[in-house]
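Repro:
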Amino acid sequence: MGPAPSPRSSLFRRLARAGAREGLSLLLLFAVAGCAPRLKLSDGLLRADAGRTTLVYLHGTDLVRRQGEVEQRIPLARFGCIPERSLSYSQVFELFSGGTRAVVFSKQSNMGGFDLFGHAGRSVTASCVLDLERQEGIPLKGRVPPDSYLLSARRGGVRVHVGVTTGRIYAWPDFPVFDKLEVIDLAAGRQVAMPLPVEREKCDVVETRTELLVACVQDVDDKGGGQVVLARYGLEAWPPDELGRSTMNVAPGRDIESVSFFPDGRHLACIDQGTTQDGRPDDLLDIRNVATGEAAVFFKGLSWIGAAIVEPTADGEGFLLAERVTPETGGSDVGRVRRYGFDGSLRGTWELKDPPYAVIAPSDGKGFWVGFYNEARWFELKARP
């Protein structure tokens, strides 16, 4: 007879059997073993709801929903509206508040010629709402207008935001021309197309507890205006009524390339990529206080800012800045995460072996996940001294 199993190994087996019976994976195993947890990802797909209470990620042919240290694994086949491998080409995967549902839009090249803009033909492979609790998929065809962005294979990408208060779906083109903002209320069975505050420019949308905010880049002349227009809308009226708008002078003389709200709508990240006269990187990151319109934190002289990720910390005092880094000695690009306060103070730095795909700081404030192409790793946030 072999040696008797240790108490720890017996605990592992009991937990594993319990997890198999319930369809759950208890990552408390990692804590028992003294190891930081890692998640196995496919295609770098790692998402969180606005409140940062629920993670969802892709692992092979399963969608995994994680709350705290408990995971639920759902085979994609149960949803019915997601063809095999379609999430590998997903342009949109946005969670509703609480992480119980998600809206998915995916398209890929059908290799069938080119459109008027010279782009390869596209075909929509998935367009539906996933109910993660009932484990069923609800196709959007027949529930939204036929010309909706969420059913279209038009050129360019589609941006989507799900309202934390109303549950409405907001959809708009990533490269707008004279397109509008779609507001889709699935529960009430109604939709409306609203003009964006600025046409032909990059925009971002966020719904807070009390209002809808839309920010768009505005260039006032050919030299670059460096301005951002912020419009506010009420949530009670239908369609949403505009309450007012203001202009932020972010970086005069520069072309702001993109804007992105923090999930709670309190801050807005403005990004511009550029170089100095002698060819050195001179990217800009300006984080604005939405309530005042003033800069909270301002960085110049950055590089790879187009691939950077800004994630607020749960304490509300600052954010994480994840960057792609090219080593001065050459070789493959690596990554770095730095923690800043809104007072500009640097509060921590983590070096990564690979460029990050995603960064998510859960609401418990204990740490953050960094997503790579095939895994996500956990990093602890130390208390501020």
